[in-house]
Amino acid sequence: MTLFFEQLYGMAQYYPVVLKGIGVTLALSFIGIFAGTVLGFVLGVGRASPRKWLSFAIGAYTDLFRGTPVLVQVFVVFFVLPEAGIELDSFTAGVIALSNIAACFISEIVAAGIRAVPTGQLEAAASSGLSRFQQLRLVVMPQATRMIVPSLVGQYVLLVKDSSVVSAIGLLDLTRSGWVIVQSVPNGLLVFTAVGVGYFLICYPLLYLSRRLEKA
What we know:
single chain; mainly alpha
């Protein structure tokens, strides 16, 4: 028991590292959620487009990234792009990879929501003289958004958890802070249980929001 409290005290000495790790995780997640949502909506509209070539092209793109591990995508951005002359720091590489994978998943959610809007409403909007863009903005997207919000929030939770892969390229996020601490406090169970609790505390508000939205 004495050893346990000594290790707990040792962990407490690393609170600046943990706070920095939490800050990096929150920053990555927030930027990834924002950028991924904006790009995901754009891709989702194209994915649901009646133009089959556009829908196919976007579907092929999103399937490529949805079907490959996030860690591999982070490595490609961080290690391969510099070979093409595009130098990126680890934070920027993480943001690009996470935003892209979020956009790919969100685009499919958005496309499914758009397709779920009854065609009768589109026909009524068209007969009212609304242009295609006006139909999308005034009729389709308001209804689709209400249907897809719970799924979107669930995707945001997954993005927060996926952000842990950036520790593999040396970025001091919450997971990486655990690896730093465990070098001095050799109790992996204790350290990474604390890391897991940290991720849970970040994700729980989103999980709670998702459940509330599903019941609404």
